[in-house]
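Appendix B: complex inputs.
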Amino acid sequence: MVNNKQNKKIKMNDQRSKIDIDNIAKLASLPLTKEEKVTFEKQLSEVLTYISKLNEVDTSKVEPIGHITGLVNVQRPDEPAPSLSQEDALKNAPKTHNGFFEVPAIFEEQDT
Amino acid sequence: MIDITDLTIESASNLLSKKQMKAEELAKLFLARAEVLNKKLNCFITLTPDIAIDQAKRVDDFIAQGQKLNDLAGIPIALKDLFSTKGIKTTAASKVLENYVPVYDATVVSKLKDANTIFIGKTNHDAWGHGGSGENSDFGPSVNPYDQKRVPGGSSSGSAAALAATTCIAATGTDTGGSSRLPAAFCNVVGLKPTYGRVSRYGVIAMASSLDSIGHMTKTVYDNAVVLNVTAGHDEFDATSSAEKVPDYTDGIGRGVSGLKIGLPKEYFEKLDAKIKKVILDAAKKLESLGAKVTEVDLPNTQYGVATYYIIQPSEVSSNLARYDGVRFGNFRDSFGSEAKRRIILGTFTLSSGYYDAYYLKAMKVRRLIREDYLKAFKNVDCLICPVSPTLPFKIGEKVDDPLAMYLADIYTVNANLAGIPALAVPCGFIDDLPVGMQIVGPDFSEKLLYQIGYAYEQETKWYQQKPKI
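Resulting structure:
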């Protein structure tokens, strides 16, 4: 995980805000080739330098914005209604098993 | 024989209702043209001739029965391939979804079906909506009908190219940072970015949920209003959609601009290319000659737009694209193209523990300041006029290796998305035979006013009559 001990102090584009691409790719579960890692690291460091210009803006008294035109507490009646059938829900799944999605194993089998 | 490249929704609808042409005949003309021109322009990922013919036959039945139909009945349209279509492959222009066939329709698609439009096909675009040129499609770039060596603008590249080349009379687009307006400007068509929440996002493959708006393109301003009449409105399937009343957007469209106050935001003109600047200022003068008052206004935080956008947008992209894990639908994550991967990495970084406050939260604060700039300006003026793009349509390949340069193509469009407000891109001339567009930007839910202004300008100029030579 990313070290967040000093998280309050981190500002954009200081030493600690360099992208640790291996770690981020792992967090995003995104396989990258060696070449991609090298290219992205360079390209994204340019992008980070550019976006760090937001450091100039004093936002100490500004609240972050929520829903942009101001909708709050949107609710709908909690009533059951027809939804996708099991067959439809599974239609695009690459692998199914007895009416379920088949997922890669998470736990390894252990000898007992 | 009619020349279909002259047709608008208004005139085509007239032909059908007066029984001068059958919907099936009209559909066949457009399908044939789409089939041929797609080979040059690569504007469609999927053509849907069988569906189009079925839909057209139904319209002809309704007309034969003497049923009164709405203005969109029998109108050939194209759908960006981000719009889920039940039973029709929907790829998001990405190899991840190359074989994905949705089991439900996006709300906008249902509404267009209910309005009896004719689906010509699904258009090409930058994969997932990521790009300003159309070159990030995993199925190859679309090209600009006005110059086939140049990009049509993105991300809704295929929709703009397909429309400009008259393979349809209207096309849907999405607009997260300019994706409907930029291609509209590059291809001499009218493109709308509606107010956030005006049109339901349900079933449109999500890019950045707090910025995504669902737009469309047409040849004329009137046509654009006709389409919004159908697509706008609250949707129980999109909690962020607005319950604000939907007016008839064509009603009073010809009222003119007399007495309206139009602002020119000075930050948009400071570094603008001299030729483009002249074209936009000429448009402002035209409106002034029609009775509008034009004044300069100030949007001081404009310069932070792209930086704010390129934090919020990739953050939300990384979150939305996390669902593509190859379990429920689509291929595994190694099928993402370069730009999607780049944005997933950037967004995962800016949202990651310890960095969230410095990036995402900071950007959401600056975003408030950008919106407040607009709110302040709209106390003094009714709308703003500014350029859509800092450049003319650029050459294919020119910016593909420089993501930052590509991101800066969004410099004049992202702020409307950050502020949530509507903006209408309207053709306003040509430079060296390449189209130029301007934006008319207004307060929340002012689409009707934007159409009124765009219509007044278009009546005087009629740039849409300048067709591409293809």
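Chain B has a mean pLDDT of 97.
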